[in-house]
């Protein structure tokens, strides 16, 4: 009876393994097909004129310069806003916050906020930043909205990185007479900075592809000028892609495919930097 049950369990394990491999292959094949189709459609459109050209009603002369500059502006401001707040919140919750019902409630809510649809953050940003704070459809309003979107991710990444620091390092610092803040600032944060930075970059790579919250805040599909200040109106690559795909001319479909390639390159580059920093940090820190 026991041997028969063991054989059934092994058979189930094999079936599950085969099913997992097949599912993974299906996902990878579909991904290769989609990316390959986009590359074939848009790679020939990428040139210097496309990268530096302004939006136009004629697809053959339309470019992504204003959308790309808007993306860079939004990305930089989002990082400047979310990084210090997210890291500070993570340090407080992990090192200073008292363990109790309130802290457990905060942990649950922060984890749940990471899964809230981005359109909800767009509505929140529209009401608070665009209307109450009277920032309008500016880069600053969009950046603050995206900062709200990725803050839970940064907070969770910061806490997990701090948890990975051995308690012996903290004890040794306290034994030498360091205060709690000195221990955190001089020992804990440097030791966990690689993991924190990885989480921040991965969070920003999510933000760079978001369109829904920025559309709600007021980002424009057509901007004839590159933004120069945080209060200027703006567009970003995802919105520019959405605008081109909705056009009936095939030339705009080609432009959208080319812009998708540029956006994929930016996203893959950010993820690559995150992986590099994580591996470098793991090799550098030896407990």
Keywords:
single chain, 287 residues, mainly alpha, MetI-like fold, 2 domains
Verbal overview:
With 287 residues, the chain is mainly α. The protein has two domains: 2-45; 50-284, MetI-like (MetI-like fold), CATH 1.10.3720.10. 76% of the residues lie in helices and 0% in strands. The protein is built from eleven helices and no strands. The protein has helices spanning 2-42, 48-52, 65-96, 101-113, 118-132, 139-163, 167-175, 180-207, 212-217, 237-245, 250-284. It starts with a helix and ends with a helix.
Task: Describe the SSE topology.
Layout: H1 2-42, H2 48-52, H3 65-96, H4 101-113, H5 118-132, H6 139-163, H7 167-175, H8 180-207, H9 212-217, H10 237-245, H11 250-284
Helix pairs in contact: 1-11, 3-6, 3-8, 3-10, 5-6, 6-8, 7-8, 8-11, 10-11
CATH superfamily of the largest domain: MetI-like
Helix-strand category: mainly alpha
For the secondary structure, the number of strands is 0
User: What portion of residues is helical?
Assistant: over 70%
Instruction: Please outline the major beta sheet.
Output: none
Q: What is the C-alpha radius of gyration, as a whole number of Å?
A: 23 Å
Q: What is the C-level CATH assignment of the largest domain?
A: Mainly Alpha
H/E element order? HHHHHHHHHHH
CATH architecture of the largest domain: Orthogonal Bundle
N- to C-terminal separation?
Answer: 49 Å
Which of globular, elongated, flat, extended, rod-shaped describes the shape?
A: globular
Arithmetic mean pLDDT: 85
> pLDDT under 50 segments (min length 5)?
none
CATH names the topology of the largest domain as MetI-like fold
Number of helices: 11
> Approximately how much beta-strand content do the residues carry?
under 5%
How many domains in all? 2
């Amino acid at each position: 009876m026991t041997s028969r049950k063991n054989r059934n369990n092994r058979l189930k394990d094999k079936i599950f393994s085969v099913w997992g491999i097949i599912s993974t292959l299906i996902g990878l094949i579909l991904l290769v097909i989609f990316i390959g189709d986009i590359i074939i459609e848009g790679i020939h459109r990428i040139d210097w004129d496309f990268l530096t050209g302004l939006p136009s009603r004629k697809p053959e002369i339309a470019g992504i310069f204003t959308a790309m500059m808007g993306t860079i502006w939004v990305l930089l401001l989002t990082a400047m806003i979310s990084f210090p707040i997210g890291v500070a919140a993570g340090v407080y919750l992990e090192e200073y916050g008292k363990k109790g019902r309130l802290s457990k409630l905060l942990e649950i809510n922060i984890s749940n906020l990471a899964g809230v649809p981005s359109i909800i953050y767009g509505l929140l940003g529209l009401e608070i930043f665009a209307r109450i704070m009277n920032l309008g459809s500016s880069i600053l309003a969009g950046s603050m909205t995206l900062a709200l979107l990725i803050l839970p991710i940064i907070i969770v990444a910061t806490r997990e990185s701090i948890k990975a620091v051995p308690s012996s390092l903290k004890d040794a610092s306290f034994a030498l007479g360091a205060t709690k803040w000195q221990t955190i600032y001089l020992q804990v944060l440097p030791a966990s900075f690689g993991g924190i930075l990885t989480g921040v970059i991965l969070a920003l790579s999510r933000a760079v592809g978001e369109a829904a919250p920025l559309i709600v805040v007021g980002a424009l599909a057509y901007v004839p000028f590159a933004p120069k200040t945080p209060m200027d109106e703006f567009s970003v690559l995802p919105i520019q892609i959405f605008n081109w795909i909705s056009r009936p001319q095939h030339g705009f479909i080609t432009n959208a495919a080319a812009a998708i390639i540029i956006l994929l390159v930016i996203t893959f580059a950010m993820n690559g930097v995150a992986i590099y920093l994580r591996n470098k940090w793991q090799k550098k820190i030896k407990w």
